[in-house]
Amino acid sequence: MDIKQNIIQVTNLRKEFKSYSSRSGLTGAFRDLLTRNYKVMAAVDDISLTIKQGEMVGYIGENGAGKSTTIKMLTGILTPTSGTVLVNGMNPHKEREQFVRTIGVVFGQRSQLWWDIAVQESFRLLKKVYRVSDEDYNSHMSHVIETLDIGPLLDKPVRKLSLGQRMRCELAAALIHNPPLLFLDEPTIGLDVLVKLKIREFLKEINETYNTTILLTTHDLSDIEALCERVVLLDEGKIVYDGRLDQLQAGAVEGKQVEFEFIEPVAAANLPQLPQVYWEQKDATTWLAQLNGDERAVSKLISTVIEANPISNVRMNKVSTEEMIRKIYEEGMAIS
């Protein structure tokens, strides 16, 4: 497959659901038996999206923004109300049997492993389901098992695994057939830091080794920062940003802090008072400048401060992705 080929191609994708409401009182209950009140809600509202092979894309948004609904349509679980979906060159809903052999899926709150049997028995069953040869299974899975450090877990029933252990096994199970496309829906939910780091490093490795395309949906934005150069931001079923994460961060100068460490204590009256700059004292020699404005305003602030007062250090405190996304939703910040 050409690396420039679109592995996911979505055009005007829409998914509607009916939301029913009940009338009050006994009379209302009888009326509901005959006719129901409902309104049509668009969980995904005419979105268009392309993802190329080898990309690692973060698909983010608030609860109810339409992320999981999109994933379910891309994996063939839900049928779109309208629009077209092509994933790995196939329609996920019409070519389902062939299609599922080309994707891997990990849902953080659902398991594809059998609860009461050993992990390796689940792997063997999935191997038969996906019709993976012994040679391909042994060569590929030996690397996966070693990298995820799940060798000691293979003989244990799934029900006896901790959450972190189970999620590593779930990830391995999704890769038994070495799919070119991997969907991850909240894969690190509830996991401790060390397990998260191990999973992130593994995902980077399979992306580099096999050119695996990864679409990651998560509320843990540190996962996005660690793995994805590109983010797609969803709000009320619509895509409000699709581009590089660093460009989104660069456009969010508002809320950045410039931290100045002065050689000697400085009074507030001696600090330059510039438009859209708000000062906060951290200690006797350290001040934080909260800045609203573009990058030229940042440069002007730093040069003005340095001219007026000798400093020992200056640093830019980067806005976290989580804080940036929160502001986008709370304040309706315009992004392009």
Biggest sheet details? 6 strands, mixed
Unreliable segments (pLDDT under 50, ≥5 consecutive)?
A: none
Placed side by side, the strands forming the largest sheet appear as 5-6-7-3-8-9
What is the averaged pLDDT score? 85
Could you state the order of secondary-structure elements as H and E? EHEEHEHEHHHEHEHEEHEEEHEH
What is the number of strand segments?
A: 13
- How helix-rich are the residues, as a percent range? 25-40%
The radius of gyration computed from the alpha-carbon positions, rounded to a whole number of angstroms, is: 25 Å
Helix-strand category: alpha/beta
Give the termini separation. Answer: 32 Å
Query: Percent of residues in beta strands?
Result: 25-35%
Shape descriptor = globular
Supply the number of helical segments: 11
GO molecular function: ATP binding; ATP hydrolysis activity
Keywords: ATP-binding, Nucleotide-binding, Transport
Protein name: ATP-binding cassette domain-containing protein
Domain ABC transporter: 28-261
